[in-house]
Write a structure and sequence with these properties.
The structure is a single chain. With 385 residues, the chain is an alpha/beta fold. Helices cover 38% and strands 17% of the residues. The strands form four sheets. A six-stranded mixed beta sheet has the order 9-10-14-11-12-13, with helices on both faces. The chain has a five-stranded parallel beta sheet with strand order 5-6-4-7-8, with helices on both faces. The N and C termini lie far apart (58 Å).
């Protein structure tokens, strides 16, 4: 076997020391591995492609980058391809530890796809994945940019570096679709998705599928009945006269877009429950507070994944963006925050639970425990008259 992860090395395995790993090979790995091969990340693609006899002429790779919308667009494209009779696979936020996996893992996936005669790989391409050369060497059949707003400043440090990372990918070989291209598309069919931002996601998926040569009739009929992925403006049935929606919005722009659309849905109050992740970009926290105040009637600021940060400190950063705190409540415990939202909600109100979406866990300190906003909503709603 061949591995690049020291935790997976067994006696007689070949160890690939990739990138910075070339300079940090432990005595344990030296003693255990049958052979050690040192590679720069830029050379890993060519090495593994030859070693594993990967023929990328048989697979079309679709890369979607941008601050928001990557996951939804990916899953919309997958649904169109499925209806077209095409075997495809999606890699991204919902089903991968890293939004964009390391090149070794990507090629392992592609090797498996070839065995199963899958022909299209739809992947989310993150700015960090680009900056860390995780996709170096991969030929993309289509590349698309959803949008660019602030995110990952903890990693990139400057907005310019964040934007530059995106364009390293977008200006590479192969056709690129920009927002100015796909926003011109006319959606002359009914669909299930709610909100202006989802109209853009539908148009982006439409543009990708057109570039892939899928017939227009197939694209339209598929998108007309397509569903959003879990945790993307997902309505949760509660058997009450209130509407509860779970969404992954965790940037100022995505939170504002979601709340704006949710506000348009309600004739009552919009109640927003959200927090911000710990050990991540701190500059976006007050901006998220500002967005919440702009569109919400009532706000409950709570914990997201605080990780090793003090949850109250994160909340204090969020509160800096809320000028009038009259209708703002702080509840560190996320489950209790959701419970408070349900208790104050009246008929025709809308509750938005933002920040975690599809995630079924919460990270407090270094401990990861099961926590699913959708499940919690349904569980608590049964106990509240």
């Amino acid at each position: 076997m061949i591995h690049y992860d020291t935790r997976k090395i067994n006696p007689e395995d070949v160890f690939l020391a990739i990138g910075k790993g070339k300079d940090h090979i432990s005595r344990e790995v030296i003693a255990k591995a049958k052979k050690i091969i040192k590679l720069g990340k830029e050379n890993t693609y060519n090495y593994l492609q030859k070693l594993w006899d990967i023929n990328l002429d048989d697979i079309e790779i679709i890369g979607i980058t941008g601050t928001n919308g990557k996951t939804t667009v990916s899953y919309l494209v997958e649904q169109v391809l499925k209806n077209h009779g095409t075997k495809s696979r999606v890699i991204g936020t919902i089903n991968s530890n890293l939004t964009t996996p390391e090149i070794f893992d990507l090629l392992t996936i592609i090797k498996d796809m070839q065995k199963k005669n899958e022909t299209h790989l739809i992947m989310e391409v993150s700015s960090i994945g680009i900056a860390e050369n995780r996709i170096t060497g991969l030929p993309f059949s289509v590349k698309l940019l959803t949008n660019i707003t602030q995110d990952h400043m903890d990693y990139h440090k400057t907005f310019k570096h964040y934007v530059d990372s995106k364009f390293i990918f977008l200006t590479n070989k192969g056709p690129t679709i920009y927002p100015t291209d796909y926003k011109k598309i006319n959606l002359d069919f009914n669909h299930k998705l709610i909100g202006k931002f989802n109209e853009y996601n539908l148009k982006a998926a439409y543009a990708i599928c057109s570039e892939l040569g899928i017939p227009t009739t197939t694209i339209k009929s598929s998108l007309a009945k397509a569903n959003p992925p879990k945790g993307r403006f997902e309505k949760i049935e509660l058997n009450k006269k209130i509407t509860a929606i779970v969404d992954y919005a965790h940037t100022p722009d995505s939170l504002e877009n979601v709340l704006k659309e949710a506000k348009a849905l309600t004739t009552g109050n919009l109640i927003t429950v959200f927090g911000a992740g710990g050990d991540r970009d701190t500059s976006k926290r007050p901006l998220m507070g500002k967005a919440a105040e702009k569109w919400s009637d009532k706000i409950i600021v709570t914990s997201d994944n605080p990780r090793t940060e003090d949850p109250q400190s994160i909340i204090d950063d969020v509160l800096k963006g809320i000028k009038n705190k009259t209708n703002t409540v702080v509840e560190i415990n996320r489950k209790e925050a959701i419970q408070k939202a349900l208790m104050i909600a009246k008929d025709n109100d809308v509750i938005i639970i933002a920040g975690k979406g599809h995630e079924d866990y919460q990270i407090i300190g270094t401990e990861k425990t099961h926590f699913d906003d959708s499940e919690i909503l349904q569980e608590l709603a049964k106990c509240i008259p």
